[in-house]
Amino acid sequence: MVDTLGLLLAVVVHPANIQDRDGAKRVFAKAKQLGAWPRLERVWADGGYAGKLIVWVSSFCQWVLEIVKRNDDVKGFKLLPKRWVVERTFSWLSNYRRLSKHYEYWNETGEAMIQVAMIHIMLRRLTKKTAGVGAA
């Protein structure tokens, strides 16, 4: 789960035999448990998360799960608003060799590696913007 800038809010690594919608429940439950975003009202997801998950998120988390769907009339690639944000985050994380495959024995270690990579991304951004301040 990422914010509108693509920065990590919550991460859950689960086995591949769990369907995405069921895995999403784990992510939403973890995000709700953290409780760090009291102003969060709306969550965007792609069409794979439609169905009963919308009602579950509304009742369990009190958030609106909005599905961003692709128009079937459009052929080829079409950039959809809001859907590209999480894909961009995946792209940033794919630059870290340790995340190229799931090498970890425990899922918690995989989650920690994702968090470390995101910390590194955010620190690089902070140092780029502050490097020129005070230099004369």
Helix content: 40-55%
> Which structural class do the helices and strands define?
mainly alpha
How many extended strands?
A: 2
Our count of helices gives 4
Largest sheet: 2 strands, parallel
Please write the string of helix (H) and strand (E) elements.
HEHEHH
What number is the mean pLDDT? 84
Unreliable spans:
none
Distance between the termini: 40 Å
Instruction: Please state the overall shape, judged from the principal axes of the Cα atoms.
Output: globular
Q: State the domain count.
A: 1
Radius of gyration from CA coordinates: 17 Å
Strand order of the largest sheet: 1-2
Please report which band the strand proportion falls in: under 5%, 5-15%, 15-25%, 25-35%, 35-45% or over 45%. Answer: 5-15%
Offer a few descriptive terms.
4 helices; 136 residues; 2 strands; two-stranded parallel sheet; mainly alpha; 6% strand; globular
Short description:
The chain has 136 residues and is mainly alpha-helical. The protein has helices at 20-34, 52-61, 84-93, 107-130; strands at 42-45, 64-67.
